[in-house]
From TrEMBL:
It comes from the Bacteria. Residues 2-74 form the Ferrous iron transporter FeoA-like domain. The lineage of its organism: Bacteria, Pseudomonadati, Pseudomonadota, Betaproteobacteria, Neisseriales. PANTHER family: FE(2+) TRANSPORT PROTEIN A. InterPro entries: Fe-transptr_FeoA-like, FeoA, FeoA_core_dom, Transcriptional_repressor_C. Keywords: Iron. Transmembrane segments: none annotated. It comes from Silvimonas amylolytica. This is Ferrous iron transporter FeoA-like domain-containing protein.
Amino acid sequence: MCPLFELSLETPARVLKLHTPAELTQRLCALGLRPGREVTVLRRGWLGGPLQLRIGSTELMLRREHARAIEVETLPVREG
């Protein structure tokens, strides 16, 4: 288990818990970032910029401070 912030690029992970304020948690869940869903970090912004994430077929940007508050577990990389 680790924070989403520490996840390596292109490493699949499962969201375990959101330790974010209720309003942000509600918004993230509406975008698909909720416990049980698979998430991948696609890119990291320069100089402390946001992370680009993929959740299912949705891509979104998330501030690093919020990514530190999301607990994930890594999944095996799928051969394709």
